[in-house]
Write a structure and sequence with these properties.
Largest sheet of chain A: 5 strands, mixed
Helix content of chain A: 10-25%
Structural class of chain A: alpha+beta
Oligomer: heterodimer
Number of domains of chain B: 2
Number of strands of chain B: 5
Strand content of chain A: 5-15%
CATH architecture of the largest domain in chain B: 2-Layer Sandwich
Number of domains of chain A: 1
Largest interface: A-B, 26 and 26 residues
CATH class of the largest domain in chain B: Alpha Beta
């Protein structure tokens, strides 16, 4: 059975038997929610979420600056999610979602350092793990599938059997 | 299912592993005694995610609480990974056998840049419903008290006496034995009162 893999830092999620459009919808929702939930000091972290087609490694290319200026949280434009069109018969091609900042593991509370000395928190501790493991990610996937199910232009959509296993182990420190 | 009961359900195996290995366990929201890494410790946090899920039909007692349980190990940096692996492996096995643990991510190991710790962590998706957690049995103090029991429609003895209800005086009860005796006397009084009605049969 074909399944589209959604790879996130530290986690993998699968969507079973969905179209390219549905997978793209799901990726858009996930990145949008990650942007919304991300800690915000200067806004650099929240604006550096990216989506790549397939199982890709996302290297940290945005170095940490010596100092940052605090800004107020702003609404961000919808994330750019590349289409899966062109992947042809490879029905198992999915997305990799990641952040480009060098300090991403700290920002996601995968390693300590964000909240210990902080005087003001813009995101609760463990916000990322809570989103992934606490049901937020599952809801985003369900919402994407529901949206696709209601779209009359998507033909042959099967509403059942949409979710695969959760939480395969991937080392986020790679 | 209270949040405290859920926390106790997931924390208890961690505490027991730490006790068996002689490692300090630091619950959430406790102060760090010092910043050095000469002593290792384990920290665990419970974060709740989606706690609202519509019930189906009349299953009013069905809860479905999702969350994330995170266990972190801090040990001295520069002494190899063996100890951290030993600790995390034991914790992994304990959590794997625990009801309510949906999937475990990790453990991951890394040296912290700005702190003198070798760091390991794992997290797990948890789902709790009313049938997930077994009754808690304290290992050190097996005494059972009524301190945590919430009464349904409680009536004070004063209110009962005003309404001529058949409840003996509770003012002299100061111990659990007194309370047990009071309950037994209450039942006898109730039985005696009902005898003219039911003929004394049970």
């Amino acid at each position: 059975m074909a399944s589209r893999k959604f790879k996130l830092p530290g986690f993998s999620e699968y969507l079973e038997e969905v179209t390219q459009v549905t997978a793209r919808e799901a990726a858009t929702r996930i990145v949008g929610e990650l942007q919304f939930l991300s800690p915000w000091y200067s806004g650099e972290f929240a604006t550096n979420w990216v989506v790549r087609v397939g199982d890709k490694r996302i290297n940290p290319t945005v170095p940490a600056k010596p100092t940052y200026e605090r800004t107020s949280r702003q609404a961000l434009p919808a994330p750019v999610v590349p289409s899966l069109r062109g992947t042809g018969s490879k029905k198992n091609v999915g997305y990799t979602i990641g952040n480009l900042t060098e300090y991403r593991n700290i920002a996601m509370d995968l390693v300590p350092g964000r909240v210990e000395e902080a005087r003001q928190l813009s995101a609760p501790k463990d916000w990322y793990r809570t989103y992934i493991e606490g049901g937020g990610l599952t809801s985003a996937l369900q919402a994407a599938v529901s949206t696709a199910a209601q779209n009359p232009r998507i033909k042959g959509f099967k509403r059942s059997n949409t979710f695969g296993p959760v939480g395969l182990v991937i080392n986020p420190f790679n | 299912m209270t949040l405290q009961a859920i926390r106790r359900h997931f924390e208890t195996p961690v505490v027991e592993v730490c006790q068996s290995l002689g490692i300090t366990y630091r619950p959430a929201n406790t102060l760090e005694p010092n910043g050095d890494a000469y002593s290792e410790f384990v920290e665990a946090r419970l974060q709740f995610g989606q706690m609202m899920q519509p019930n189906v039909g009349d299953c009013v007692g069905l809860e479905n609480i999702r969350g994330s349980f995170i266990i972190e190990y801090y040990g001295p940096k520069g002494r190899g990974p063996a100890r951290a692996q030993e600790v995390m492996e034991l914790l992994f096995c304990e959590m794997l056998a625990l009801k309510g643990v949906n999937s475990i991510n990790g453990p991951n190991f890394t040296e912290l840049d700005d702190r003198p710790y070798y760091f390991a962590s794992m997290s797990m998706a948890i789902i709790i419903n009313s049938g997930t957690t077994a009754p808690f049995t304290p290992s050190e103090d097996p005494a059972v008290t009524t301190r945590g029991v919430a009464l349904v429609n409680p009536v004070t003895t004063f209110a009962a006496s005003v309404n001529n209800e058949i409840i003996p005086d509770l003012s002299s009860a100061t111990t659990q034995e007194d309370a047990n005796k009071w309950i037994a006397e209450s039942l006898e009084a109730l039985d005696e009162t009902l005898s003219p009605i039911d003929g004394g049969s049970y």
